[in-house]
Design brief:
single chain, three-stranded parallel sheet
């Protein structure tokens, strides 16, 4: 059910058996010592691993097609997460406040970088956005103060307000000429904007 193991600070490792069809919202929320988990589910629900402060690396299983809202929010020690091509949807705030996350590659199966997705990921230096992405949500990279350059593929036709606010190390951003209202994106005056 929902929040089944919420705040179980003694859980270090867990294996969800194949007989379990789905995980409830917030199932392992605030399991602060959890370092390893394995499962073969289709969806990582909303808030599933929120505030799991022991997680430093996570390989999303290849059975997963959807990562819910806030799924890994505030996992402050999470440095690496590998997302397979099976994933087609990543919810709002999914990696919000993952302050140790330094690199992430969005699979080419994803079409939208949702709202607030990487908000407060202050260690994020680089991100690869595939050409499958058509939209970047509002505040998507808010406060990614280590991000130094970003290439937005020509497939992107819409970027939400303040998508890049607080990206104070952003030296260069390359974006397609289809993007309108660039002044609303929160890009610093020190950032070189290349329109292609």
């Amino acid at each position: 059910g929902k929040y089944a193991f919420d705040s179980c600070s003694s859980i270090v490792e867990i294996e969800v058996p194949p007989s379990v069809a789905e995980m409830g919202k917030g199932a392992f929320n605030r399991c602060t010592k959890l370092t390893k988990i394995s499962f073969s589910l289709k969806k990582i629900p909303d808030c599933a691993f929120e505030k799991c402060l022991g997680l430093s690396k996570f390989d999303v299983p290849p059975t997963v097609t959807e990562i819910g809202e806030y799924a890994f929010c505030s996992c402050t020690k999470l440095k690496e997460i590998n997302i397979p091509i099976s994933v087609t949807y990543i919810g709002d705030y999914a990696f919000c406040l993952c302050s140790s996350l330094s690199h992430i590659e969005i699979p080419s199966s994803v079409t939208k970088i949702n709202n607030y997705l990487f908000r407060g990921c202050e260690s994020l230096k680089n991100i690869i956005i595939p050409s499958s992405v058509t939209e970047i949500g509002k505040y998507a990279f808010d406060g990614c103060k280590s991000l130094n350059n970003i290439l937005i593929p020509s497939s992107v036709t819409q970027i939400g307000v303040f998508a890049f606010i607080g990206c104070e190390s952003l030296n260069e951003i390359e974006m397609p000429n289809s993007i309108k209202d660039i002044e609303k994106l929160g890009i610093s005056n020190n950032t070189k904007i290349i329109i292609k």
